[in-house]
Structure formats: structure tokens, C-alpha cells
């Protein structure tokens, strides 16, 4: 078999089967979601009526350029289906997200959604989360102190930078990328980190996924919680 499409493209296309006219969609962030937005652009042009809530300024800009109608939480109270990527997916459907720095808005959208669909290629499937450094969004004030508290949990926090300057999230915060190596108890760790005053949110998405679509050698594998 020849594969003209990347795994990311294939799962992005497969996610369309969960979209129906009239829906409010959560629009995730990242390169896999970018392919999904391209699919959505085509469908909208062909007459599909949906509205999206973007999880980042990046997605907002793309959606606007693609003519995908957008809305926000002042106009809708719930999201029918949220589609997003992930950095790691474990066998229990727990996720590591935030590689793109949009974890807070992604989590708010996932929490508000009736159905959460994660689209990934098979490089994201792991037995245990933690190979990818855990992104933790922190308040800029005193971030050095927050980093030192995070370190006590067995990681090495690194301030995310762009062009030698701290990366600033859409919410005006910093990201500390915390290399744990392997996370034995993601739910417990998330709960502990959340208790730190300076921590806004962690990239651990616990029990927030309903369906995982994984591209495996050109085939979409569908796992349902
Ligand atoms: O969590 C995310 C952004 O905060 C993305 O979903 C994650 O980084 C996956 O990105 P990509 O689809 O480009 O591999």
C-alpha cells in the first residue's frame, strides 16, 4: 500500500464522521488539528453548518482564514464535540498535552464538551506518560519559586523560551516543561501539582477523553472509552 497522506491527515479526515450540521465544535491546537481545520473548511464551503470555539489564538486565526464560523462561551453553554491532538496517549486514555502551549484553553474546552475526540498518529501512543516533558502553565510572578516546588516532585522544570525570551501563553502565563521520564500515577501527580499556588494548569488531561483515533500505517484505529 502506498501512503499519500500522513497519519495526521488520515485521522483528521476520520474525525469528520463525528461532525454534524448544527453542532458547536471545540477546535484544538496543533499540526494534526490544522489538517482537521482544512477538512472543515472544505465541508463548510459545501454547506455544513457548524460553529467552533478555538483553543488558541493560532487556531482562531486559521479558522477565520478558512471561513469557519466561530463563537465563544458568552453565546453557548456547551460544546457538542471537541477535537484535539495530544503529545502522548496512554492505554487508559490519559493524555499529555501542551506541546503547543495551549493546554489551559484546551482543557476548558474539553471540560465543556459532551464528546472529546483525540486525533493522533501512532508516535503519540505510549505505555506510560512522561517521556515528553510535562508542560505546566504557571503565573509569571515568582515562577522561579514555583519551579523549585515542582522540582521536589522529581522533575527538572525548564522555562519554555522563544527567541531567548520566555514563551508567553495566550493567557499571559509562562510554561515550565517538566521532564519526569516516566509518570507512574498521572492523576495523583496532576492533583499534587495543581495545589501549588503558582500553577495554573498541568498538561495532564485525566479522564477527559472519550474517543481516540490513531493512525497506524495508513489505517485509523478507533478506541472508545
Ligand atoms: O496539546 C497540544 C497543544 O497545546 C497539541 O494537541 C499537541 O502538542 C499535539 O500537536 P501536534 O498535532 O502538532 O502533534
TrEMBL record:
It catalyses: aldehydo-D-ribose 5-phosphate = D-ribulose 5-phosphate. Substrate binds at residues 29-32, 84-87, 97-100, 124. InterPro entries: NagB/RpiA_transferase-like, Ribose5P_isomerase_typA_subgr, Ribose5P_isomerase_type_A. It comes from the Bacteria. Coiled coil: none annotated. The active site is at 106 (proton acceptor). GO terms for molecular function: ribose-5-phosphate isomerase activity. GO terms for biological process: D-ribose metabolic process; pentose-phosphate shunt, non-oxidative branch. One of its GO terms (cellular component) is cytosol. Keywords: Isomerase. Pathway: Carbohydrate degradation; pentose phosphate pathway; D-ribose 5-phosphate from D-ribulose 5-phosphate (non-oxidative stage): step 1/1. Pfam families: Rib_5-P_isom_A. Its EC number is 5.3.1.6. NCBIfam families: PRK00702.1 (NF001924), rpiA (TIGR00021). HAMAP family: Rib_5P_isom_A. Belongs to the ribose 5-phosphate isomerase family. Homodimer. PANTHER family: RIBOSE-5-PHOSPHATE ISOMERASE (PTHR11934). Catalyzes the reversible conversion of ribose-5-phosphate to ribulose 5-phosphate. This is Ribose-5-phosphate isomerase A. The lineage of its organism: Bacteria, Bacillati, Bacillota, Bacilli, Bacillales.
Amino acid at each position: 500500500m502506498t501512503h499519500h497522506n500522513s497519519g495526521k491527515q488520515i485521522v483528521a479526515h476520520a474525525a469528520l464522521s463525528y461532525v454534524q450540521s448544527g453542532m458547536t465544535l471545540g477546535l484544538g491546537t496543533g499540526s494534526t488539528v490544522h489538517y482537521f481545520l482544512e477538512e472543515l473548511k472544505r465541508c463548510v464551503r459545501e454547506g455544513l453548518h457548524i460553529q467552533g470555539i478555538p483553543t488558541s489564538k493560532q487556531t482562531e486565526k486559521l479558522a477565520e482564514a478558512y471561513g469557519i464560523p466561530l463563537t465563544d462561551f458568552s453565546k453557548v453553554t456547551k460544546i457538542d464535540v471537541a477535537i484535539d491532538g495530544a503529545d502522548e496517549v496512554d492505554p487508559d486514555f490519559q493524555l499529555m498535552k501542551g506541546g503547543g502551549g495551549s493546554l489551559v484553553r484546551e482543557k476548558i474546552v474539553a471540560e465543556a464538551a459532551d464528546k472529546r475526540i483525540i486525533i493522533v498518529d501512532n508516535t503519540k501512543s505510549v505505555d506510560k506518560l512522561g517521556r515528553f516533558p510535562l508542560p505546566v502553565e504557571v503565573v509569571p510572578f515568582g515562577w522561579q519559586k514555583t519551579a523549585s516546588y515542582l522540582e521536589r516532585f522529581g522533575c527538572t522544570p525548564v522555562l519554555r523560551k522563544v527567541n531567548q525570551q520566555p514563551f508567553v501563553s495566550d493567557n499571559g502565563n509562562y510554561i515550565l516543561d517538566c521532564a519526569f521520564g516516566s509518570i507512574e500515577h498521572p492523576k495523583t501527580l496532576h492533583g499534587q501539582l495543581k495545589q501549588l499556588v503558582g500553577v495554573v494548569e498541568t498538561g495532564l488531561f485525566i479522564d477527559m477523553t472519550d474517543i481516540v483515533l490513531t493512525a497506524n500505517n495508513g489505517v485509523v484505529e478507533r478506541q472508545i472509552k
